[in-house]
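Contributing new records

If you add data, match the layout below exactly. Sequence lines come first and carry their own label; structure lines follow with theirs. Keep one chain per record. Anything else will be rejected by the validation script.
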Amino acid sequence: MTPVTLPPPPAPYLPQRGERYRLVAPNTPTAPRVARDFVGALLRTTEHPGLVDDARLCVSEVVSNAHCHTRSARIRVDVKVNRRQVMVYVTDDEPGRLPEPGGAAHAESGRGLVIVESLTDRWGTTTHGGRVRTAKTVWFVLVARALDRL
């Protein structure tokens, strides 16, 4: 049996302080739901109720993309939470073409990253591995507004 190696943790965009959480899910049709439930429960528990709906939708879209467009054995969801913001990273071990927002308004697919772009404060992609890429991460940031923390 070949050992499974996970991509390195996504270091560049993490805030310096806060709590880190991780979910590693098999790349199956249930992965988006598991990730959505994980992030929702985490944000309710860490007192970010105002970010729950947007975070659940965004992580579901990004994990769905990883499931549908890669053959990665696992999908990793890393979440960094602090008082002011939540950062979510979805990493797969297939570093092919980086995803971009697209899709026509009437198309049945291709609108996931447009949704992510419209709901988040920032989002982006990154690759891991240097010259020989070994993984890619799609990340997004949601900032807690003063009213969200009440």
